Amino acid sequence: MKSEKFYQQLDMLFRSGKIQEAERYIRETMEQVRQDNDLSALISLANELGGVFRVTGRLEEAKKIYQVALEAIRVLGLEDTEQHGTTLLNLASVHSEGKEAAEALALYNMAAEIFSKKGLSQDYRMAALYNNISHVYDLLEKADQALLYAEKSLCIVKDLPAHEVELATTYSTLAVRYLKLQEEAKAESALAEAERIFNALPGKPNVHYAATLNSFGDLRYRQQRYAEAVSCFERALRILTENYGESSAYADVTRTNLEKARRLLAPTKSSDRVNLNKDMRMTGMGLSEAYFNEFGRTMIRDQFPEYEKYMAIGLVGEGSECFGFDDELSESHDFGPGFCIWLPNDIYRVAGAQIQEAYDRLPKNYRNQYRAITPEGSGRIGVFSIEGFYKKYTGCTDAPKDPVEWLFAPETSLATVTNGKVFLDHWGAFSRIRSGLLAFYPRDILLKKLAARIAMMSQSGQYNYERCMKRGEAAAAYLSCAEFIKNTISAVYLLNRRYMPFYKWMFRGMDQLERLKEIKPMLERLASVPDTPSSTAAKAELIERVCILVRDELKNQNMISGSDPFLNSHCQDLMSRIEDPRIKGLPVMFDGK
């Protein structure tokens, strides 16, 4: 058997999803090596065929063929070799798939002992073994042990070069373990990393991506986001059937999950439909990603394969859906299926218009949503140059390099270009700039902006509000209170190292901040209490309490040293810590926003 030619052909069949042809090819080659009495080749072929049997749910056949491999290993005197360990690992996976945990664990331990003796403790095979042991402990309902071995696997794989698929698969496994422990935030983070890696791979979706989508569907189902769960399961099923056929065991599991989610999207009683309407709604981000996966991927792959490697694709920018704040009311205008394609400027000049034309031909209706765009909402989706997109909002074609550029980049615009989600980025330039912006302001700029914010908080809230009320100037007091609230919100975002979105979403975005959470309801109280003589003292006291909380957080972050509750007294302390003389010499209240 000419192994190089054989495996090239086999790999091509697997990549094309021709699983039945691959099985026939392996069987025919096995018959040939049997006749030649080539036991070494027989071991490799039996392992390949066993893998086919396993993914198509024929577990008993898989066990038998792996026993053939083990017998050949015994005859050739290859016990305790890497080949022996790999075969044991594969056979153990079949027992694991059949929920025969004790048998699987025993075989995995035998394989682990062989790999350790051979100095393979940091080899991918050991990582795969740990991943599989994690699955066995999951079967045994030992969640902590299952998580431990998934983490061991990740520690090995993330340091291995050219193992992107294995790394993504390991993140997916880790997410499943987190879900078992009800740690949904950690699961979502792991799945997002797996998805990022899979989406960056060239060509058609990798078959292992289906497991990530299945887990994402499970997560969305738990979160009662049923429409997004359906989308995930549908995409997973499409990948599985393309690769393994309609009758594969994996496809059957996914189909069951899909039907379960669909039932909750189609309640039988009209009253149930009303009650579930909010829960089953697909978010704008989910709609965008599903639309891209269903139509955008094919459009790009079929019509612009030569430009695909330069593209970043996602949904970032203006619109409530980019911040994750959309609801049913958001659907009245500038909402619906769509996504962004960002290209380097030189590629955009050559092909941008052509790609935009193809984008415009994509279906306008998707999942009962039609994007009705107003003049004010145009230009949010479609094809853009990377440099042009960032310059439109920040004034810079890249992340600012100089503190002065940072100072004059509008705060809310920085929130706009760092929100949303990048589905994939082949070229990497868009994400590189985005990462630079997400790293947040340089310290000098942070100090300068905080000095300006607490100066305005002190002036408008601690000083002018009560004076305006004593003069009977309720309108001026109202504006003073509004300035205080606005500057306080900005200070809270700054102290959380997050960019503040524009005024409509300032309050809503505070729910996502970790520090000074208690300030939001206090500011809501300030905004709702009328400016009357009877409420002046209470509002002034509330303003003072807010200022004290901000002072304490500044001290906690080692930005000031004093304890005066009057915030203006700390402005010079903040300014004195600035190193750049151009920024240090600016007036306290100056801010390039």
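the 2nd protein, sequnce then structure:
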Amino acid sequence: MAIRVYFPIRAKLLILMSTVVVIAILSYLALATKLFTDDKALLVYELNASHLRTLAAEVEAELSKTSDKVKLLTQVHGNPSLAQSILGSDPDLLAYRLHEASKNGQDWIAVATGLSPLAPSPLDIHGLEQSFPIPFGAVLEKKGILENLSNDTTPLYRFSMELKTKENGRNTILIATTYLKLEGVLKRMQGTGIAMVYLINDAGQVLIHPDKQTILQRTSMDDVSLVQDALNSKLGLEMKHFEWQGKKWIGSYHSIPFAHVTVLSQIPESEIFRATRQLINKSALLALLLVTLTLFFTTRLAKSLSEPLRKLVTATQEIKRWNFDQTIAVKTNDEIGLLATSFNDMAYELQRQRKQIEAHQADLERKVKERTAALEAQKKKASQAQEALVRTTRLASLGEMAGMAAHEILNPLNNISIRIQHIQHDLLTAEENDTGLFTEIVQGWKDAYTKGGWTALQSDLTKSVSEETGDASASKKTLLEEDLENLRGISGDLSKRREEKRDGITFILGEIGRITKMINNMRSIARVGGVRKAVNIHEPIESTLAAMGEFLQARQIQVVKKFSNFAVAEMTLQADPDELVQVFSNLFRNAAQSMEEKNHFPKTLEIATQLGAQDKRIEIRIRDEGTGIQPQHLDKIFETDFTTKTLEKGTGLGLSISRRLVRAFSGEISVETTTPGKGTTFLVWFPSPNKES
């Protein structure tokens, strides 16, 4: 038995209130964190997008301005003074150079590089073009590209673009290259606070970056997922969440198709949501304070509620011990006070009713004893009536079987009578003849011996038969030879008759045994049992078949047994063997009578046993090849006094009493299948031994 742990209401209230407060605070923190994080992320995205648009516009404006000046310088490259003034007006524009391009196989090359810069420059243009050859093919394919040529001292960029001119009726392709500082753009990208803003080309290489070493090394950023998305995306502006170098970032990018460059900005999430963490920490401190205050006030409230309830529990335990004098003094004007008042009233009422119960108890005990005695008498009468009914039914069944088996008993009696008549007429007559002949021989020997003693006897025995009788045609044998021959004949006849008598006695005893077996079997069917014991279901079936063997054989009924091969214990139930024999004898006899009208031979009575597939119940199926049961009779065959047989063959009690006996063993009997003109299968089942135990 499980031990019930005492769990006071005070602890339940504390746990309940604490749980409610903690869940409410955690829900608030989760919701606030979610809203704040989403709002912060949206704000950062909008600010970052606006900043990127501005930077991209500045870069694009700077390159557009450079493009316009390149076009202008190309137009006035024959006027050195005007070109000088244009170069001098822009401090970021360090040098300008024109190349005439021509296609050499698959590559583009400069065919006219003698066009010198239109202004003196501190840069070694020739050295730069040797170190960083101008990608003519890429420039002509993309119409314009921006390259990073920075060194340790000076940030330097080369912007190359395609120009098409027509001189002297000939189309000429020129590539103009300008060398720029882009100091304004550099300062803007390096002063962006927590955001890291940088500019890359369409190969992912860094052009402008807050880190000077990254610019000088022309680092490729194609390992950053944000850069990969920017290079592959067809959108002008987009924001992404990604991981890089073990951190989580929020990044945005903006493409500038003019020079095939992209401005990117990425901010660590830890910097963005720093305020969120501070909010959570402060909210957690506030939540701890609220939980502490809740526990304090809940403890006080729980005590005010649990103390009156404790008094109620103590008083209830006293009432459980039949002590109804307990009262509760609770002065609160609430439900607990009302409960205490009701409890006091209940205790008083219980004390009053207890006295009434004690007064009625003595009278009730007297009536119970009287009623018990009456029930015992009725039970005894019912048991006697039940036993009488079973005995009557068995005797009725025995009468039916006796009538059916009468001619089987007459057969062995007729055989006995015939054999006795044979002994009486044949054997006795033969014995009388042999006895007369033997007496005659003995008397002749006696007479001869009496007349003359041994000599006279010897003389008489040596005479021939013809001499003795005076008949010359008689046998020439002596009287002794003839007497000995007659004695040998008598001896042979005696031996032969002795064998015939032995055979006759054996035959008569066998026939008497048959009659005795029939009578004993009928007596076993008629015997009233009533004692339950462990019975293997196959034993009463075999006993019934043995008792009805002559009955079934006389009707040329072949018994087919399909017994289950399960263990004996699984096919064993607690029942009265004699009553089971009565059940099966009724079923077997009905099956045999049903097949009497059939002309085919042999007629088969099949008996099968098995365990049910689902609940392992013991099942017996009895199938015959008789006339079957008509549909209108199916609901009536188990009713008392219902029968379709003549008075000589049945009383209508067999199936009714069989069902009653089977149900007494917690089983059931029913018609499983029946087909008029083809046969019937009865199903008898009993609970499995495990269920009965």
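The chain is about 55% helix and 20% strand. The radius of gyration is 65 Å.
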